[in-house]
Amino acid sequence: NTQAAIQQLKAGETLTDTFTVSSTDGTTHTLTVTIQGTNDAPVLAAQTQAVTEDGTQLSGHMVATDVDSGDTQTFSIAHAVDGFTLNADGSYSFDPSHASYQHLAAGQTQDVVIPITVTDGSGATATQNLTIRLTGTNDAARISGTDIGRVVEDQTLSASGQLQISDTDDGQAHFIAQTATAGSYGSLTLGEDGHWQYQLDNSKPEVQALQSTDTATDSFTVHSADGSSHSITVTIQGQRDNVVIGGVDVGVVKEDVSAVTGGHLVATGESAEFVPLQQRTPLGNFAMDASGAWTYTLDNSRAGTDALKNGETATDSVTITHTDGTTHTVTVTIMGTNDAPVLSAQTQAISEDGTQLTGHM
Question: Which residues, 6 or more positions from 332, have their beta carbon under 8 angstroms from its beta carbon?
């Protein structure tokens, strides 16, 4: 039964084996044996293949043997497998870019085990597995959502937003958290869920230097678990800062000696300009131009000025205004001096031997 000629017999095929036998007297006779074939099941070899996700399409051929000479072979699978195509002759192809395998992260493996059956012409079958080991590659995350914000110097100091992320790779659809990452004007905090908050550092000189017509931007790069990057940009709007007025804001004059004093006020801020002013004060006159240069002239003819004794002082105060509305006070001290008495001449009339004249200078 181990002879190839016998094993090659299909069902319904026969072979004959003929023998000549002799009696003791030499008489011969022919003995014929008919060998009837039966179907032998095909033998199918298992296969293992390796492929990379999103790589080149895999192709191959299942190999079956059958000792029955010329027997037909038909290959089949019981259930469809994503990305896999099997032809009746045993040739196959596998598409590693199929959506069902996009969940694999870089380096992650999955064995796709496909039972394949071969059937011969008599209906005998054999089944073996085709195993395809699929190695994942990184699929870039897709990031969307709110990635811009706006803050205002001295007013709105924080901004926030929500990023959305999708990633077909298993376990990759989240962000790498950041805590108070420093930028040029503030800091950014990002959660794994994509929620972010920007905090403006309003004390920074760079922030306070912004004028109301100025804007600046702070940009941050955030990353998802697979390394995909995205930018968050925050616009900082400058704001008009209250003017600080300094410079010379006091002066001294002296009755009948030095009638004029002056100085120069200095404003720090978006504008150095003042509202020009000319004002009559109780004891003199004040004038200031747009640059902040001012003069005060004492009016010695005023009763209040002339009434000052030596050693006495008085003050004249003027409120000036910057173009942004900020006010400031300029104060002048008036020092009194001694005024000599004024004696008026008199003329009187009298008669000789008349009444005695009396009077007062």
Answer: 250, 251, 252, 253, 261, 284, 286, 296, 298, 315, 316, 317, 318
**Which amino acid is it at 318?**
V
Comparing C-alpha atoms, which of 335, 325, 128 is closest to residue 241? 325
* CATH topology agreement for domains 43-135 and 143-237: yes
Can you name the residues that pair with 54 across neighbouring β-strands? none
Which CATH number, 3.30.230, 3.90.79, 2.60.40, 2.60.120, labels domain 143-237? Answer: 2.60.40
CATH number of the 244-335 domain? 2.60.40
Nearest Cα neighbor of 11 from 37, 48, 30 is: 37
> Would you say 257 and 306 are in contact if contact means Cβ atoms under 8 Å apart?
no
**177 neighbors 191 (Cβ within 8 angstroms):** yes
3-state secondary structure of 7: helix
Q: Contact at 8 Å (CB) between 214 and 227?
A: no
At residue 38, the pLDDT reads 61
Compute the chain's Rg from CA coordinates.
Answer: 56
Q: Is there a contact between 269 and 260 (Cβ–Cβ < 8 Å)?
A: no
β-pairing, 47-52 vs 125-135, is parallel
Q: What is the CATH number of domain 43-135?
A: 2.60.40.10
Q: Which residues pair with 295 in a beta bridge?
A: 262, 287
The 10 Å Cβ neighbour count of residue 285 is: 14
Q: Domain coordinates of the chain in residue numbers? A: 4-36, 43-135, 143-237, 244-335
CB 259 within 8 A of CB 341: no
pLDDT in tens, 118-172: 998 888 899 999 999 999 998 889 999 999 999 999 999 999 999 999 998 888 8
CA distances from 151 to 14, 162, 210, 234 (A): 96, 16, 12, 7
Q: Which residues have C-beta within 8 Å of that of residue 73, sequence separation ≥ 6?
A: 42, 64, 66, 89, 90, 118, 119, 120
Residue 167 φ then ψ, to 5°: -150, 125
Q: What is the mean pLDDT of residues 293-307?
A: 89
Cβ atoms of 282 and 302 closer than 8 Å: yes
